[in-house]
Amino acid sequence: MASPPGPDLTGMPRGSGTPSDRTSMMVERKMELEEQIDRLKAEEKQERNAIEGLILQLSDPDERAVIRLRYFDRADWESTCGVLFGDRRDYVDRVDAYQNRTYKIHGRALLNLAAVLDELEPLPELRQ
Fold first, then answer.
1. Residue 117 to residues 12, 63, 66: CA-CA distances in angstroms?
2. pLDDT in tens, 71-81
3. How far is CA 104 from the centre of its chain?
4. CA 98 → CA 66, 73, 106, 111, distances in Å?
5. pTM for the complete prediction?
6. With 66 labelled, which of 21, 40, 72, 75 sits at a CA distance of 20 to 30 A?
């Protein structure tokens, strides 16, 4: 928001608008932006709840964890792997093997989510 202009010490004429007009326009614009932000937040919450409903249909808790970590928490692969397997005694020695397991769990989770989506909205078969 802009502040009203300072006093005119030159004696030169100004435009016909008053500082309050500019301020009221800025306040109105701010209110419009706040309404837009609130609407977008509500849409995001609704989409997140729908996706969470799909994730809950995965039977494997590791698959659910990987999807949440990667896509909701935006965790990198190293962090995701650490959350899943970091408590294992041989984690430091076999970190590459656990990383590969994390990738496989992620892949299975995506395939299972695709299957859940297909059950909800079957795609028309493509025949030639």
1. 69, 16, 18
2. 999 999 999 99
3. 24
4. 13, 20, 12, 20
5. 0.67
6. 40
